[in-house]
C-alpha cells in the first residue's frame, strides 16, 4: 500500500482543503532554527546602540531615540504574529534602548571641576590608600584617593566639596599613617585628565568622565591628619581590612613575590614593578596580575570542593542534605567576600554576577552554563553602565566566556570520548586537553581585543598559560586562602612563604617564555571599526547555531588584516605641542622641547609599531625642511623666540605643511599650518602625506562636541556657585 503524504491526507479528510500554508523561506527557517539562542543577540543590539552614541561627533538629544524606541515598540506589538516585522522592531528597540541608556549615563555624570593650575592646599577625606612603587623604583610608595576635596585658596573660599575624586601620590619620605575615613590636609599639584595623544587614540578624558575622577597629582608636603571622619562604615571597614592584609603580606614577603601576593589576595597592584608587568605581558600572563574571573573561579572552586568534601564525611549530611546546593551557596558567598577584599573591581564584579546566574541555574535545575545566562549578565551590566562597552576588560571577559561556552558545546562529545570509561590515564589526558583547550579558546577570542588596545602579539601565550594556570589553581591560590584564614591568628607566615614559592615558579616561567624568540611582536593600532567588526563577527560565530556560523570567519579575517591595510599617520603633534613625531625610513623620529604629557611618545610608538629614533639633528636644533612621501614639510621643533623670528621665505617656499611648537605668527602661509595655537584650540594632530596633498586631522574634529570634551581653553566648571545668569 502506498503511503499518502500530508496534502493527500488533508484532502481526504476535508475536500475543501486544497492548499497548505506556504513553507517558510530559507532565511526564516534559519532564524526559527535558532530558537532561544536569539535571546543572546539582545545585549549585542543594546551594545551597538551604546556604541552608536559614543561614535557620534555631536550630541543628539533624547527625543529622537525615544521616539524611535516607542515606534519600534508599537511596531513589535502590531506585527508580533509575523517573524520579520517582530525581529526588526525588537532589534530597533534594543538599539534605541542602548543609545538612550548611554545618553543618560553621559548626562547624569557630575561636570568636571576647575582644578587650580598652581600648587594648592587640599582638605579632603581619604577614600582609599593604594600601594605603589616609589618614584625611583627602589621601595614602596602610596597613592590616596581623595573624596569631598576642598581647595584652600583665595578664589575658592566657600566652595562646595568636589563631587569627584582625586588620585594623589604621596611623598616617598612621608611616613604618616593614613587610613580610609581620615580627614587629611596636604599641599599638592593637581592636573585634569589628559586628552588623547592622537586622534583616534585612547581617551582618558572620557574614561574619567564616567569613572567619577576629577584628576590626579602628587603631594608637595607631608600629610596632616585632621580627624577620623565618619564616612561609610562598611566601605571604610573593608578598605581597612584590605590595607591590613596588604601590609601583612608586604611585611612577610618583601619583593615582587609579595607584590603579586598582594594583588591576588588584596587587589593591590601598585607595588608590582614595571619590569615584572612587562615580563608577564610578553609571556601572555598579564591576566594573572588583575583579579578577574579566573581568580574568582579558582577561589569558588576551592571552597566548593572543601565544603562538598566536608559534608561527604558525615553520612547523615551526605544522605539527607542537598550537599551540592549547600556547597554552591557557600562558594558564592566566599566568592563575594573575595571580590570585596580585592577591591570590587569591574571584571571581578562581572564574574561574580555570572556566578550568581550559575548558582541560580544550579538551584533551579537548569543548565549551569549557557549563552542565555551570559546574555542576561551582559544586558544587566550594559544597562547599569553602558560605558562598559568601551572597556577592554569588559570586551575581553565576555569574548573569552562566550568562546568557552560555544567551544565546549561543540567539542563536548569528543572530550567525553577522550575520557573513555574513567581510566586514570584517560582522565588525566582529558584534564590536560581541557586545560589546553580552555587556554586556546579564551586566548584566541581575546587576542584581537588585546591587539586593538595594547598593540602586542604574544605567540607563546598558550604554552605559558598551560603551565601557569595549573600552578595558580593547585598551589598558589589554595595556600593564599589558607593564609587569609590563618591571618587573624598570626599563623599565616608559613602559608605565605609556600605561596611565594609557587609565585616564584610562575615568575621564572614567565621570564623564560618572555625570552623566547618572537615572544612579543608589536602590531600597528587596529581601527575602531575593525574592533567593532571583530566583536560582532565573534558574536555571530559563537551565538549562531549551524554551519552558517563559519561565514563569520570572513569579517574576522578582515578585522585582523585592518591594522596592516590602513595607512598610519606620517606625522604626530602632541596635545600640548611639546613633542613632534615623524614616520620616516621605518622609524618614528620623535623630538621637541618636551611636554607635561609623557605618555604621548609611548602611545605613538604603540600605534605605529615602529622603533623610536630622534629627529634629525638639524630639525631638533633649528627650523628644518624634510620630505615625506613626496610632500615638503617644514618643522620647527624648538623655538626660544616664541615665534618672533619667522623661518626664511626660501625654506617655506613650496612647503605643503608647516609644523611649529611655537605660534606661527603668519609664517609659511603657503601651505597647511599646525602651531601651538592650533593645538590649544583643537588638541593633538595627525597628518597623512599623499601625492595629492596633505590631510590633517585634529582630536577635536575626531571627537566632536561631547560632554567629556572640554571647549578650547576650557578648564572645567568653577567651584564656586554661579550666578543665576551664568
List keywords for this structure.
6 domains, six-stranded mixed β-sheet, 726 residues, alpha+beta
What is the number of independent domains? 6
Q: Uncertain runs with pLDDT below 50, 5 residues or more?
A: 8-13
Please provide the count of β strands. 18
Class computed from helices, strands and strand pairing: alpha+beta
Distance between the termini: 93 Å
Instruction: State which percent range the strand residues make up.
Output: 5-15%
Q: So what's the overall shape?
A: globular
Q: What portion of residues is helical?
A: 40-55%
Order of strands in the sheet with most strands: 12-11-10-9-17-18
Main sheet specs: 6 strands, mixed
How large, in whole angstroms, is the Cα Rg?
30 Å
Report the average pLDDT across residues. Answer: 85
User: How many helical elements?
Assistant: 25
GO cellular component, one term: plasma membrane
Domain DUF4131: 61-219
Membrane topology: Multi-pass membrane protein
Keywords: Cell membrane, Membrane, Transmembrane, Transmembrane helix
Task: Characterize the structure shown.
This protein has 726 residues and is of the alpha+beta class. It is 51% helix and 14% strand. It has 25 helices and 18 strands. It has a six-stranded mixed sheet with strand order 12-11-10-9-17-18. A five-stranded mixed beta barrel has the order 1-2-3-5-4. Helix 8 crosses helix 18 and helix 17 (461-486) runs antiparallel to helix 18. Its main location: membrane.
Amino acid at each position: 500500500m502506498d503511503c499518502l503524504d500530508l496534502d493527500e491526507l488533508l484532502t481526504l479528510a476535508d475536500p475543501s482543503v486544497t492548499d497548505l500554508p506556504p513553507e517558510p523561506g530559507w532565511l526564516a527557517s534559519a532564524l526559527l532554527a535558532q530558537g532561544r539562542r536569539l535571546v543572546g543577540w539582545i545585549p549585542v543590539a543594546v551594545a551597538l546602540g551604546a556604541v552608536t552614541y559614543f561614535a557620534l561627533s555631536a550630541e543628539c538629544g533624547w527625543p529622537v531615540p525615544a521616539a524611535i524606541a516607542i515606534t519600534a515598540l508599537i511596531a513589535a506589538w502590531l506585527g508580533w504574529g509575523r517573524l520579520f516585522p517582530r525581529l526588526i522592531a525588537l532589534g530597533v528597540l534594543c538599539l534605541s534602548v542602548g543609545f538612550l541608556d548611554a545618553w543618560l549615563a553621559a548626562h547624569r555624570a557630575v561636570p568636571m571641576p576647575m582644578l587650580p593650575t598652581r600648587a594648592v592646599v587640599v582638605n579632603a577625606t581619604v577614600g582609599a590608600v593604594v600601594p605603589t612603587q616609589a618614584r625611583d623604583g627602589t621601595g614602596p610608595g602610596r597613592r590616596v584617593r581623595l573624596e569631598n576635596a576642598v581647595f584652600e585658596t583665595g578664589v575658592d573660599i566657600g566652595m562646595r566639596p568636589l563631587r569627584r575624586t582625586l588620585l594623589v601620590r604621596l611623598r616617598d619620605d612621608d611616613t604618616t599613617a593614613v587610613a580610609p575615613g581620615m580627614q587629611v590636609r596636604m599641599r599638592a599639584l593637581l592636573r585634569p585628565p589628559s586628552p588623547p595623544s592622537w586622534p583616534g587614540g585612547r581617551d582618558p578624558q572620557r574614561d574619567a568622565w564616567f569613572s567619577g575622577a576629577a584628576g590626579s597629582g602628587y603631594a608637595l608636603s607631608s600629610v596632616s591628619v585632621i580627624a577620623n571622619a565618619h564616612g561609610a562604615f562598611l566601605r571604610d571597614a573593608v578598605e581597612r581590612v584590605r590595607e591590613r592584609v596588604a601590609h601583612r603580606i608586604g611585611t612577610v614577603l618583601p619583593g615582587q613575590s609579595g607584590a603579586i601576593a598582594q594583588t591576588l589576595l588584596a587587589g593591590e597592584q601598585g607595588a608590582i614593578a614595571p619590569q615584572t608587568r612587562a615580563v608577564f605581558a610578553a609571556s601572555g600572563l598579564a591576566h594573572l596580575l588583575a583579579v578577574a574571573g579566573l581568580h574568582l573561579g579558582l577561589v569558588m572552586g576551592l571552597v566548593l570542593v572543601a565544603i562538598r568534601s566536608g559534608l561527604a564525611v558525615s553520612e547523615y549530611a551526605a544522605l539527607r542534605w542537598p550537599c551540592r546546593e549547600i556547597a554552591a551557596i557557600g562558594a558564592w558567598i566566599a566568592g563575594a567576600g573575595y571580590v570585596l577584599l580585592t577591591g570590587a573591581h569591574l571584571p571581578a564584579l562581572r564574574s561574580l554576577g555570572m556566578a550568581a546566574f550559575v548558582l541560580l541555574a544550579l538551584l533551579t535545575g537548569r543548565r549551569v552554563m549557557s549563552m542565555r545566562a551570559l546574555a542576561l549578565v551582559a544586558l544587566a551590566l550594559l544597562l547599569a553602565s553602558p560605558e562598559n562597552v568601551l572597556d577592554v576588560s569588559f570586551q575581553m571577559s565576555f569574548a573569552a566566556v562566550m568562546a568557552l561556552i560555544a567551544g565546549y558545546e561543540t567539542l563536548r562529545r569528543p572530550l567525553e570520548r577522550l575520557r573513555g570509561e574513567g581510566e586514570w590515564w584517560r582522565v588525566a589526558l582529558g584534564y590536560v586537553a581541557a586545560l589546553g583547550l580552555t587556554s586556546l579558546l579564551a586566548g584566541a577570542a581575546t587576542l584581537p581585543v588585546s591587539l586593538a588596545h595594547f598593540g602586542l602579539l604574544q605567540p607563546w601565550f598558550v604554552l605559558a598559560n598551560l603551565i601557569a594556570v595549573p600552578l595558580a589553581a593547585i598551589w598558589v591560590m589554595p595556600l593564599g586562602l589558607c593564609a587569609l584564614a590563618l591571618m587573624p591568628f598570626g599563623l599565616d607566615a608559613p602559608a605565605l612563604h609556600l605561596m611565594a614559592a609557587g609565585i616564584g615558579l610562575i615568575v621564572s616561567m614567565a621570564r623564560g617564555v618572555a625570552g623566547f624568540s618572537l615572544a612579543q611582536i608589536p602590531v600597528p593600532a587596529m581601527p575602531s571599526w575593525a574592533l567593532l567588526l571583530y566583536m560582532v563577527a565573534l558574536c555571530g560565530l559563537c551565538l549562531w547555531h549551524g554551519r552558517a556560523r563559519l561565514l563569520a570567519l570572513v569579517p574576522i579575517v578582515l578585522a585582523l588584516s585592518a591594522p596592516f591595510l590602513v595607512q598610519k599617520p606620517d606625522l604626530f603633534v602632541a596635545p600640548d605641542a611639546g613633542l613632534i613625531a615623524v614616520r620616516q625610513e621605518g622609524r618614528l623620529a620623535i623630538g621637541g622641547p618636551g611636554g607635561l604629557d609623557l605618555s604621548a611618545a609611548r602611545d605613538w610608538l604603540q600605534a605605529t609599531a615602529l622603533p623610536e629614533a630622534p629627529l634629525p639633528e638639524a630639525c631638533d636644533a633649528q627650523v628644518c625642511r624634510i620630505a615625506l612621501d613626496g610632500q615638503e614639510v617644514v618643522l620647527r621643533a624648538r623655538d626660544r623666540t616664541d615665534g618672533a623670528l619667522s623661518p626664511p621665505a626660501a625654506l617655506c617656499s613650496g612647503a605643503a605643511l608647516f609644523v611649529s611648537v611655537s605660534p606661527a605668527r603668519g609664517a609659511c602661509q603657503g601651505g597647511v599650518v599646525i602651531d601651538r595655537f592650533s593645538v590649544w584650540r583643537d588638541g593633538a594632530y595627525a597628518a597623512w602625506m599623499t601625492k595629492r596633498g596633505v590631510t590633517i586631522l585634529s582630536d577635536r574634529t575626531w571627537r566632536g562636541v561631547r560632554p567629556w570634551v572640554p571647549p578650547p581653553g576650557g578648564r572645567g566648571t568653577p567651584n564656586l556657585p554661579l550666578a543665576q545668569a551664568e
